Amino acid sequence: MSKYNDIDMNFWKDYAEIETDSLWIIDKRDNSGAHVGDYHGNFVPQIPHQLFIRYTKKGDWILDPFMGSGTSLIEAQRLQRNAIGIDLQQKVIEDALQRITLENNDSSKIICHCGDSSEIEFKNILDSAKIKKVQFVIFHPPYWDIIKFSDNPKDLSNCENLKEFQISFGKVIDNTTAFLEKNRYCACIIGDKYAKSQVVPLGFHCMNLFLERNFLLKAIIVKNFGETKGKANQQAIWRYRALKNDFYIFKHEYIFIFKKITN
Ligand SMILES: C[S@@+](CC[C@H](N)C(=O)[O-])C[C@H]1O[C@@H](n2cnc3c(N)ncnc32)[C@H](O)[C@@H]1O
Q1: Residue 1 in domain
Q2: Residues spanned by the domain of 112
Q3: Do residues 199 and 248 touch, judged by C-beta distance below 8 A?
Q4: What is the pLDDT of residues 156-180, one digit of tens each?
């Protein structure tokens, strides 16, 4: 049995649902149970599901510093993992907690806090949960200013420029991964954006923030996405704009997987 998941390699053929390819085509969002999917900017539950079965064990602690509607917390709970979620918006947390409790099970502990993940005192939160470290961190930050989540100046979606976004996200990485157990994993889900007629490769800028901090890059996964809420029912006009203005319509985002090899 490996040290970071519950996969029994004696039965490796039985794990057909676990992705091992770097291209994830997920046609349909899992909208079952508490996974309502109405939060603008959420990710599909299949992403945390895949990551948690591959990189965590039952009873492990998962940290999500950008919990939003709590997709990863619901998934953690379903898989009997414990989880801590942080978001800047109290109302968003309250809505998430309502959903999470719909699927309450006795074997998982779910803790949510409102605050800025770049400076919140994780030590106090972990102390109250009687743990010293977490075993996985899942980062799904705002894709800079593509969706404005709030008016709070601490919100990463309000960063004035790319440099400020990188500095702010870097602070979140430092503040959270200080509590990630050595030899365990974290993942960052992020897409790119266009600005001033060129691609801003936000994904690779974020990837570099982890590389600068000596994380091992274990995977660059490309995941498709279908029609986003922002572009709903506007395929024709976007196709026209793309053809006219020499750009491509984004249909993918990245899942970067890193291993922490330092203390
Ligand atoms: C892309 S969404 C995450 C969505 C989530 N994965 C889901 O499925 O619902 C990013 C979230 O980060 C929050 N956020 C932005 N800046 C933050 C910060 N500095 N600290 C904590 N949360 C922040 C936003 O309020 C938003 O809910």
Answers
A1: no
A2: 17-259
A3: no
A4: 999 999 999 999 999 999 999 999 9
